[in-house]
Amino acid sequence: MDRDEENYYGKHGEPRKFDPKFRGPVHNRRCTDIICCVIFIVVILCYIALGVVAWVHGDPRKVIYPTDSYGQFCGQRDTFNENKTILFYFNILKCASPVVLINLQCPTTQLCVSKCPDRFATYTDVQASYRYRPDQWNYFRQFCKPGFNNPRKSVAQVLRDEDCPSMIVPSRPFLKRCFPDFSTKNGVLTVANQTTFKDGRGKTRNVTDLREAANGINIVLDARSVGMKIFEDYAISWYWILIGLFIAMLLSLLFLVLLRFTAGVLFWIFIFGVIGIIGYGIWHCYWEYDHLKGIPGSDLTVYDIGFQTDFKVYLQLRQTWLAFMIILCGVEVIIILMLIFLRNRIRIAIALLKEGSRAIGYIMSTLFYPIVTFLLIAICISYWAVTAVFLATSGEPVYKVMANQTLCKYANLTCDLETFNTTNVTKLCPGAQCTFAFYGGESLYHKYIFIFQLANAFVFLWLVNFAIALGQCTLAGAFASYYWAYRKPADIPLWPLFSSFGRAIRYHTGSLAFGALIIAIVQLIRVILEYLDHKLKGTQNSFTRFLLGCLKCCFWLLEKFLKFVNRNAYIMIAIYGKNFCTSAKEAFYLLMRNVVRVAVLDKVTDFLLFLGKILVAGGVGVLAFFFFTQRIPIFAQEVPMLNYYWVPLLTVIIGSYLVAHGFFSVYAMCVDTLFLCFCEDLERNDGSTAKPYFMSASLHRILGKKKLSPKKA
């Protein structure tokens, strides 16, 4: 017999006398799953080391700042490009998509400039007018390669060596890159009010040649404009948004308090409402069935008319309404039978919901614990994101051959910028350039960056699940202290939430890490499957897609099941202090012995909490709608002038739902904990003086067990 059972039985198996000093969760604990705890701590230390290495080798400027064809940052301090913060593309026509531009994969020379071109010009025209209009050449050459100042060089050689662009067009900076200044005039796409331009190669081209890039860029620019307006709306309405979220918090608290008195009423109103609606549906189906009697064609069967795209045809058949009526009658009978046979379990579920509201009323600090979980998850997300960015920017500049000729065998091969001009590549592929392509490397560290990114994602998932597990175990310990208090609230220990948090961290870090590890492994597999599914979307192999779909579904179900088992295992850990596997096994078998009660309680709880979330979010949303649309006369003068009133409105609605979810998640954990304690109470005790029940009087009356032992001081 282990030490926990000695709380109920003596060392030799004889019943123990009831101890009035018993205060719930076992306090005489030992550390559990020590090996997993050690591994978890080592992994965290390695994770910190990975972050340090990534920060040493990485450079976020590679993401923030554009890079020219020589691998230099535009706008970097103490360099030649310090005052040149914008990236200019020699031949924008080679960049068909703005995505190509942003990813620096455009096969043309890229140069850092201080400002974008503001006029149309070609190298041919500028060279021809150099002698009598040198100012044009001085303006044009700022978009040529640094140090180039030879307007007498032939046009063919300049374009071949890409010393200068063949043309420049009016542009404006976006994402620190020069994009053509597109606009629409009378439904016609223009650049600087022109629909045609010279390409510097002897052709006059239409602006529509840039339509694909223009459309993508205009969408992004429009999105930027909308984003600025949304930011302005947030800047002037944040105060009222916070007030709306505060109202949501008050409503959530009020709903949880009222559940103590209205849980049963709300549930039975809903149930009888469903019965009434189905009853009306049965009557309506019978009325339609009787009304169609004698109408030509109504006695045909569904088989006679076959498949029809117009589903109204089926509604003209008596057989359709007869089938509907039979289905609804079956559903009605099933619901009524379930209510008859499960009435006692439904009463227990409602009593536990009321008891949960009472428990939260005694331990109000639990309502604010989700803030701790939120902060821990926010830290994990921030560390993961920063580390991922530094890992992604850990490479050295990699240069590739960019050739105008598609048949050049050296195209896309890596090259050395310093020795490129001494090779014969330029002879075999005239116009070929050795330009910056991306960041990478050949060192051992660079070869394993993908593995490091995978490890970064895995440890991130592990830490997030650990933070969630810590919160569940902490709350479970606090609410278990309430249930196992013989005299409520007199016997509830002081600071139950902080005591439970301390026990979870001190004794059960390994067990919580073990449970979180299992979930993290399944989630990582799901991430890999999603990645493979994304990569194989274009494949025509239907069997592969079917297999991936099945695997994704199976692992989704597995994750849901494991989360359910883990949640209840954490409750058992909080109560008895055993290791993860033992707690999971005991929780699972305990739930299986009460599987009907579990199902009923789960559905009743889900319904009432979902109803609460909808009421809170909907109520605050309606109030916010009337406020931001100036339909409340008292506050009409206080409403800020907004570009889009739906911006703060949606923020308030979504935020209210999340606030309600945070509060109700505590309530759900409370009900689950009380239910497991209730099941344990029934199996461990019999209501006698030696082994009295710890359940509330209302639960005891519902069970119809022996009379409760008097609770003496």
From TrEMBL:
GO molecular function ontology, one term from the record: antiporter activity
Catalytic activity from the UniProt record: choline(out) + n H(+)(in) = choline(in) + n H(+)(out)
Compartment(s): Cell membrane
Keyword Transport attributed: yes
Bilayer disposition of the protein: Multi-pass membrane protein
Record keywords, A-Z: Antiport, Cell membrane, Glycoprotein, Membrane, Transmembrane, Transmembrane helix, Transport
UniProt-listed InterPro entries: Choline_transptr-like
TM region positions: 31-56, 238-258, 265-283, 321-342, 362-386, 459-486, 507-529, 541-558, 607-628, 649-669
GO-annotated cellular components: plasma membrane
Chief location: membrane
Similarity field: Belongs to the CTL (choline transporter-like) family.
Annotated function: Choline transporter.
Protein name according to UniProt: Choline transporter-like protein
